[in-house]
Amino acid sequence: MSFQPPVTLSDEEIAAVRASVVFEDAHVLVLDKPAGLSSQGGRIKAHTLDDLLWAFARSNGKRPHLVHRLDRDTSGVILAAKTKPAAGFLGKAIQNRKLTKTYLALVETPPPQDRGVIRRALLRQEIGRESYMRAVPDDTPGAQPSESRYRALARNDQAALVELEPHTGRMHQLRVHMADLGSPLVGDVRYGGTLTLGGARAERLMLHAARLRFPHPEGGLRDVAAPLPDDFCRAMAAAGLSLPERSAETGAVSGQSGGDIR
Predict the structure, then answer these.
(1) pLDDT tens digit sequence for 79-106
(2) What is the DSSP string of 136-185?
(3) Which end of the chain is less packed: N or C, by CB atoms within 10 Å?
(4) pTM of the entire predicted model
(5) How far is 77 from 47, CA to CA, in rounded Å?
(6) Is 73 marked active-site?
């Protein structure tokens, strides 16, 4: 954790970030990030979620730090460490792929199978000031192996609600994998997604980090979830989709698959 000067926050910002807490103890802080809020950095002249963590600063000037990121327009569960030992522990857990992240996404074109595993190498490219990922053959120089699981929870002739689980942590991995499958995420114009669904405009990238299961610095596992935000629910309703009751209980994608996709 490198030193960063304190950030001055408004009362409204402090209240909003404190209201987003879904789990907190002496070691970790789990938040429900809204869409439109950058996790860290970025070119937009506005406070990021990392800045807002100053709302949880202790009397000694220490404050939590994020241990992973979500794209700006992705909503949902995000994890921060409250101490340096916790940050080191969680950093190693991420490196060893001990975190299970479960996402929900809306696609206009349902995937070809109800469930499956996508294994496609991804290559990062810079176009102007923007960074993109592209699915490429495994032997492409500079490409990184990546794997995602998907499961269609609901579908009709207009769209599908898909549960996603990344097994690697590449930039834009789920977005590129689903686009490569022929089912780009609604609102994801960068990778070919539609801007409307069920006759209604997509308000943003329809991707939500719904659940996170992670090892705790004191031992055992913690399992936390963030409810679907209103804009996601409105998009589902416009497409005539609903979340199956059992999906909230089962959480992570089943280990069974309809086949590998390379």
Answers:
(1) 999 999 999 999 999 999 999 999 999 9
(2) E-TTSTT-B--EEEEEEEEE-SS-EEEEEEESS--TTHHHHHHHHTT-PB
(3) C
(4) 0.90
(5) 18
(6) no
| pLDDT, tens only, 57-69 | 998 889 999 999 9
194 contacts: CB under 8 Å, gap ≥ 6: 108, 184, 186, 187, 202
d(CA 135, CA 121): 6
Q: How many CB atoms lie within 10 A of CB 105?
A: 27
Quick one: CA torsion of 68, 72, 75, 78, rounded to 10 degrees? 20
Cβ–Cβ under 8 Å, residues 99 and 214? yes
Three-class secondary structure of residue 9 per DSSP: coil
DSSP string, 20-55: TEEEE-SSEEEEEEPTT--SS--SSSS--HHHHGGG
> Rounded to whole angstroms, how far apart are CA atoms 137 and 121?
6
Could you tell me if residue 182 is left (phi over 0), alpha (psi between -120 and 50 degrees) or otherwise beta?
left
Of 32, 51, 71, 188, which is the active-site residue? 71
Please name which of 176, 48, 193 lies closest in space to residue 106, comparing C-alpha atoms: 193
Other CB atoms within 10 A of residue 172 CB: 18
